[in-house]
Amino acid sequence: xxxxxxxxxxxxxxxxxxxxxxxxxxxxxxxxxxxxxxxxxxxxxxxxxxxxxxxxxxxxxxxxxxxxxxxxxxxxxxxxxxxxxxxxxxxxxxxxxxxxxxxxxxxxxxxxxxxxxxxxxxxxxxxxxxxxxxxxxxxxxxxxxxxxxxxxxxxxxxxxxxxxxxxxxxxxxxxxxxxxxxxxxxxxxxxxxxxxxxxxxxxxxxxxxxxxxxxxxxxxxxxxxxxxxxxxxxxxxxxxxxxxxxxxxxxxxxxxxxxxxxxxxxxxxxxxxxxxxxxxxxxxxxxxxxxxxxxxxxxxxxxxxxxxxxxxxxxxxxxxxxxxxxxxxxxxxxxxxxxxxxxxxxxxxxxxxxxxxxxxxxxxxxxxxxxxxxxxxxxxxxxxxxxxxxxxxxxxxxxxxxxxxxxxxxxxxxxxxxxxxxxxxxxxxxxxxxxxxxxxxxxxxxxxxxxxxxxxxxxxxxxxxxxxxxxxxxxxxxxxxxxxxxxxxxxxxxxxxxxxxxxxxxxxxxxxxxxxxxxxxxxxxxxxxxxxxxxxxxxxxxxxxxxxxxxxxxxxxxxxxxxxxxxxxxxxxxxxxxxxxxxxxxxxxxxxxxxxxxxxxxxxxxxxxxxxxxxxxxxxxxxxxxxxxxxxxxxxxxxxxxxxxxxxxxxxxxxxxxxxxxxxxxxxxxxxxxxxxxxxxxxxxxxxxxxxxxxxxxxxxxxxxxx
Amino acid sequence: xxxxxxxxxxxxxxxxxxxxxxxxxxxxxxxxxxxxxxxxxxxxxxxxxxxxxxxxxxxxxxxxxxxxxxxxxxxxxxxxxxxxxxxxxxxxxxxxxxxxxxxxxxxxxxxxxxxxxxxxxxxxxxxxxxxxxxxxxxxxxxxxxxxxxxxxxxxxxxxxxxxxxxxxxxxxxxxxxxxxxxxxxxxxxxxxxxxxxxxxxxxxxxxxxxxxxxxxxxxxxxxxxxxxxxxxxxxxxxxxxxxxxxxxxxxxxxxxxxxxxxxxxxxxxx
Lengths: 707, 270
Prior knowledge:
The structure holds 2 protein chains of 2 kinds. Chain A folds into 7 domains: about 10-115, no CATH class; about 115-185, no CATH class; about 195-225 and about 240-290, no CATH class; about 295-390, no CATH class; about 405-435, no CATH class; about 445-465 and about 515-705, Rossmann fold, CATH 3.40.50.410; about 475-515, no CATH class. Chain A is about 45% helix and about 15% strand. Chain A contains 25 helices and 20 strands. Chain B is α/β, with parallel strands linked by helices. In chain B, the strands form 3 sheets. Chain B has a 5-stranded parallel β-sheet with strand order 3-6-9-2-10, with helices on both faces. Chain B has 2 domains: about 5-175, 3-Layer(aba) Sandwich (Rossmann fold); about 180-270. Chain B has helices at about 25-35, 50-60, 75-80, 95-100, 115-120, 125, 165-170, 180-195, 195-210, 225-235, 240-250, 255-270, and strands at about 5, 40, 65-70, 80-85, 90-95, 105-110, 130-135, 140, 150-155, 175. Chain B has 12 helices and 10 strands. The interface of A and B includes residues 130, 137, 495, 498 and 678 of A.
C-alpha cells in the first residue's frame, strides 16, 4: 500500500511556488503569504494546487498567481470535477477575451461549478430543453444562459443551474416549468407592440410592468395548467399558496384563471392594482424576472423584418402567378385575402379569389406575424406604392433567405458553393454562411502510399477474397420450391422420375436473386492540422486499402478531403470523384493528403450529401474519417467550436439522413464516445483506440456496414 | 389452361370497418371509382390510408386485394406465374390479375417501394385502356367494370430516388391525407379503443407536440396508429407515461436527447 504523502511545509511550498510563478513575482510581490496559507491546507488540496498551477502558469503567470490566491476560498466546496470545470471555464475566457475578463470570472467564484446534490446545470439539459420548447409549438426558440430568467420572445434565458430540495428530478421539472412559462408569455400574447404605450400611461412604467407581468404570469400559468396537466400539477405546489396573495390581488388573479381571459384583462386590473399601491405577490420559482424591454425590442425588430419578408415573398408569389406581360405588382385593386385554420397551423392565401401558393418554408413567418400581431394587418396585404413589394435594402445581407445552392459558380476549374450553417444560439440557419471551394488535390509521390500493398500483403489478400465474395449481380437459383419461372431442367428430370417410378422432386422453379450491390459511398477525410504525423500516414494507408477493396467490390465511391479556415475558406479537395475510375493517379492524390487547417464539419457534410445525392443508388453511405471534434478558427463570439460546432454538425447529419443518406464516422478521438452518439446516433460510429490499427480494420468496418 | 387461387369472395369485407371521414374523401373516392379513375392516396404513416380503402371496399361491396409493395417484388409477383401441378404447368393469377379479372379493388400500398420496372405494369391499367398485358400468357386482359385501382405512398420520408415518376403520377386522381384535428383524432381513439374522452384528448395533445418536432430531429410525429397502440396499453393498466414511452417515444426515436425531450413533453401532459 502506498503511504499517504505528507503535507508540504511552508518552506517547501515557497520553493515550489517560486519556481512555478517566477514570471509573476517581483521584489515587492513574493509567495511567502501564499505558502503560509497553503501550508495549513490538507495534503490533497496542496497536490491539487500544484497540479493546476503549472498548467495555468503556462497560459499566463499572472492568472496562475491570482488563482493561487483565490483557490483557498472555494476549494472546500469543490470536488475535482467541479474544480476542473471552473478552471477550464476561466482558461477558455482567457483564450477568448483576455486576462481581465478571466480574472473577473475568477473573482466571481465557482457559482455554477459548485456542484451540490440535486443541482442541475443548464448545460446538461440545453439540448433536451431546446427540443422541449420546439415541441410546445409556435415560434422556434433558442435557449441561452442568463443571469435573470426571462425571454425576449426569440430566446429563453434560463439560469445556469437550479437546485430544488436536493432532488435532481424536481430541478429538471423546474427547468421545464420555467421554459414552458417563458414560452407561454411569448405564445399567449403577453408581449405585444403596443405594450410600451400602455405602460407609459403610468408615472412609473417599470412598476406598472412588474404588476402587469405578475398578473400575466398567473394568466399564462392557468393556460399552461389547462393545456399541460402534468406541468400544472407541478406548478400547483406553489400556487397552493395562493391564499397568501395580498387581498387586493385575489379577485384579479381569480378572474385571470378563466379560460377566456386575455391580456386586456390584465391591463384592466393593472390600473386598479397600481393605484392601490399594495405589495406585489412574491414571484414563483418558474416565473422569471419581470423584464419586458428585451422582449419589446426584439419584437419591434422582428415585426419590421417579417413585414419586409412578407411583402417580398408575397410579391414574388404574385409575380409568379401573373402572366409575364403584366407589369409586376402595382398598387392596384389586387384583393389579397387569407384564412388561418383554427389550430393556427396552416394558411391559405387567395389573390383575387385564386389560391396563392406560398412556399411551405414561409408558413412559420406567417405564424410568427399572427403570433405577434394577432392577425396579418391589412397594410401587409396591399402593395406598397409603385415600388410594389420591393424588399428594402435595410434587410441585412446575411439575413436574406438566399437559395444558397443555386449560387454555384465555377472559376478556374473550382466549384464554389454556398451553404447554410445551423446556429444553435438562434435556433435557425445562417443563410449562405459558408463558402466552399471544391478543387483537385495536388498529387504527390510518397513511399508511404506506394508501399502499402507490400506492407500489408497478407492483409490485402484476405480483404480481396472477402470483398470478391460480396460482389453483386443477378443470380438464378435453380431447383427452388417457389420462384419466378418453371425450371425446365428440373421439370424434365422430375417427369422422368415419375415415369420410372421414383419419387418426384418438388423443387421445380428457378428464382432470380437480385444480389445487387447498388451502393454509392463517399469517404470524407479530415485534413485538419491535428492529423499531422502518423495519423496522416495511417489515414493514407487505410484509404489505399479501402479504395482498392471498393474497386474489387465494384461499389461506386468518391473520396474528398476537407479543411477550413473560417467560414469563408472551406476547402473540399477531390481525391477521387464518383466519375473518376480508380487509377494510379488516385493513389498519388491519396499521397497528397496532408494536414492543413481546421474542421468546420457541417459545411463539408452538406457538400458531401449534395455530391452523394447526385448518385442514383439504393444505399448511399457517407463515411467520415476524423480525429477530433468539429472546430474552426472564427472571429465571431465563441466561434465554430463547442456546442455551436457540435450542433451544426448534428444538424447537417440530420439533413443528410433526411435525404436517405446513411452517415457513419470512424474516428481516432478517444473522447469521441462522449459526443458521437449525440451526432451520429448509437451504433453509427467506430472509435479506434490505436490509430495504427486503422488500416487493418477499415475494410472490415466497411464490409460490415454494407452487408 | 386452368387457373389456381382462392375465390375472391374471401376478400370481401364483411364487417364495417371503423372510419371517421375527415372531409369529402368518401364522395371523391366514389366519384373516381364510378368514372374508372385510379386513385393515388398520399399521407404520413399511420394516418388512416389503409383503413379508408378498407372502408370504401366495404361500402362499395367489392372484394379488396391488398399488396404491400417492397423492393424485391417482381412483375410475376403482381401478375402471376406458372406453377407445376401433377406434372402439368398451371397458371396462377397474381393479386393484380385476380383483381382485374374479378372486378376487385386492388390496393398497392407503399407503391414507391416497388422497383420501377415493376411499377410500369400498372400503366395500361391506370389509363383509359384498362388492360393488363400478361406476357407469359400472351393475352391482354381487359379489366372488369368493377375493377378499381388504388395506390398509396408517404411523401415525407421517401428518398428523392423513390419518388413516383410523372408518367405514373399523371394517370391518377390524387388525395392527400393528414392527421385529423384534435377533436376528430380523440374521437377516433375513443371509438377504436374505448379510452375515455379526457385521456384520449391528452393523448392526442401529446401527439401534436411530437408532430411539432418533425424536421427538428424527428422524421415523423406520432401517428394515429401509435396513439391507438398507446391507448390500448393504457386500458390494460399501463400508466400513461409508460404507455407513451413504449408505444410512441421509443418507436419514434433512438436519439437519447430526443427521447428525453419527448419524455418531458409526455410528463408535461400526463
